[in-house]
Amino acid sequence: MQISSRFTLAVHIFVCIDTFQDTYKVTSDFLAGSTNVNPVIIRKILGQLKTAGFVIFCL
C-alpha cells in the first residue's frame, strides 16, 4: 500500500504544531517553508484536518 504525500504532509503538520506551538506562530507559510510546498496546499490539508476534528484554529 502506498502512502500519499498528503498523509506525509499531515504528519509533518502535526509534528510541527506540537513541537513549535509554544515558540513560534505556526502558520501555513511557516509550514510551507519547512516542507517546501505551496502554502495553499498546506491550507487545504489544514482545512481537511479541521473538518475531521484533528486541529482547532486559534487566533
Structure explained in plain terms:
This protein has helices at 5-20, 28-35, 39-51. By secondary structure, the chain is mainly α. Helix 1 packs across helix 3 (39-51) and helix 2 crosses helix 3.
Q: Nutshell version of this structure?
A:
The chain contains 3 helices and no strands. The protein has helices spanning 5-20, 28-35, 39-51. Helix 1 (5-20) crosses helix 3 (39-51) and helix 2 packs across helix 3 (39-51).
Tell me the number of helical segments per DSSP (H or I, 4 or more residues long). 3
Structural class computed from helices and strand pairing: mainly alpha
- Largest sheet composition: none
What oligomeric state best describes the polypeptide chains here?
Answer: single chain
Order of H and E elements: HHH
